[in-house]
Amino acid sequence: MSPAASQLPAAGSAGGPYDSVRDFLNDLEARGRVERIPEMDQDAFEMTAFAYRLLDRLGYEKAPAFVVERVKTGGQWREGPVLGNQFGSWVDEALVFGVQNISEDQEEMYWAVMNELFGRLDSGGRWQHIPPVEFSNAADAPCKQVRLKGDEIDIEQFAWLQNNPADAGRYINMGAVFVDDPEFGSNVGTYRCQVQGPRQIGVNMGPGQHAWRILNSMRKRGDKVARCAVAVGVDPITFVTSSTKMADFGVNELDVAGGLRGKPVEVVRCETCDIRVPAHAEMIIEGEIPLHETAPEGPYGELFGFLGPQVPENFFMNLKVVTHREKPWIQNSFTGITLDMPKGPQTAAEFNRYKQLIPNLTGFYTHKGTIGIVFVRINKRFPGEGMAAGQQVSANPGQNKVVIVVDDDVNIFNPVKVLHAIGARWQPGDATLIVPQTQMLVPDPSKPQTFLSSKIVIDATRQLPAEGGPKTFAPVSRQLLAESFPELFGQTDAKWGDIFAKWGG
Predict the structure, then answer these.
(1) Element (H, E) at 272
(2) Residue 443 C-beta-side C-alpha neighbours within 13 Å
(3) Number of neighbouring beta carbons within 10 Å of residue 320
């Protein structure tokens, strides 16, 4: 990893919000959080295997971003760079959101990001809006340094990857897809795009997604085609607004991105239509989606790390213009393996919403790399509060399939501590609720039906006598030690801290 730890900038340096992915990666590299690799053969799936091993050996919060300068893909060696695993650590997210005092403590940075983002919610718990602004000179916009039109376009020449042997082909899988209609509204969403030919890509807008609703409304109105643009390599905050449901239907995600950034996203008009796209993107792919034609798309390795099925009839786009920076950077999601967007805004919004419903909520956390399992921490005072909190959180239609509620003294950032609470404080027969069928939108491969799932609430708080628990719980040994000798742990850290540091603690 480069540079060496001794060359890292002093704690407290932070550069966000960023206008481009390049600016973010430069700061990430200055903190020693980027590994550069000269070349890899992705036709032999070397990058995919490397991504698996990186997470196996280092874990989600220690694994660095990686950059491969030259990649063999689609039968040819192609110039990158190709980027992976850019948002694995809460330290990385602290950079994204402009936290002013950066440390290497993951829990500390989690709370720093949360506090930074809570200030960007309005009194109703909605993200503040700052509309985008036009780039001062469109001709000089970074995303328009190279212009390709008509037969000049060969989208296959770029270093897009096929992640898995069973995938249908190479994919543009970290693009922000823009559709806009004066009657039905606008949408910026992250939808996987299969490379299907030199001038054709598939666009997988799943049923119920905002763009899917817009295109189907246009189809019913009788429109023949929909204008569309795909922005590749946008800044981290614009990407997270594209990748999550942070904006209501019809609300421009770029307004939300501006509010999160604290300054507007600079945009530029497309070459073929009035859609405005981020001026600092690496590449803009413009085209038309035929509304009355479809093409098969997929299969593709999905979010949970399982192969998703082929979609026999899916949208596709005929490419009209491609503009890009000189030597564009390609971001790739190793879907189901690496962490490819900041989680902070979604976590902060959920925490804020649940806090209104659960006044004694003191913690809410989903560990990076896990999907559908959420830890909830409360300051329990009365019977029934643990189960009530769990039911509020499980009602989220997005995911939250397994909700585990614990007492305020349990460290929810340490899964072992949560499991310990389950083992020592939970009785399955008395403190468990199974919801037999409710809404869940994520593509969980265990679901027998699309959109529907069962859920479970585990109340691992100390059960009070009124809830069937014992009259008294045995005191916690560590708590007794800390109460009897309040300075002891600090003294231990000071005396033997070098030993803990040596082993990564």
Answers:
(1) none
(2) 16
(3) 21
Q: What is the CA radius of gyration of the chain?
A: 24
Spatial distance between the Cα atoms of 331 and 80, rounded to a whole number of angstroms:
10
Q: Is 466 helix (H, G, I), strand (E, B) or coil?
A: helix
CA 471 to chain centre: 44
Q: In the chain, where are the structural domains located?
A: 5-118, 133-325, 358-471, 475-505
CA dihedral 390→395→398→400, nearest 10 degrees, is 20
Residues in the chain, how many? Answer: 505
Q: What phi and psi, each to the nearest 5 degrees, are found at residue 347? A: -65, -45
Write the CATH number of the domain with boundaries 133-325: 2.30.110.10
- Residue 461 burial (C-beta neighbours within 10 Å; 0-12, 13-18, 19+): buried
- What CATH topology corresponds to 358-471? UbiD C-terminal domain-like (3.40.1670)
pLDDT tens-place values along the chain, 505 residues long: 333 332 333 333 456 789 999 999 999 999 999 999 999 999 999 999 999 999 999 988 889 999 999 999 999 999 999 999 998 889 999 999 999 889 988 999 999 999 999 999 988 889 999 999 999 888 899 999 999 999 999 999 999 999 999 999 999 999 999 999 999 888 999 999 999 999 999 999 988 899 999 999 999 999 999 999 999 999 999 999 999 888 888 889 999 999 999 999 999 999 999 999 999 999 999 999 999 999 999 999 987 788 989 999 999 999 999 999 999 999 999 999 998 889 999 899 999 999 999 999 999 998 877 888 999 999 999 999 999 999 999 988 777 889 999 999 999 999 999 999 999 999 999 899 998 888 777 777 777 777 788 899 999 999 999 999 998 888 889 889 999 999 999 999 999 989 888 887 6
- 376 backbone dihedrals φ, ψ, rounded to 5°: -120, 130
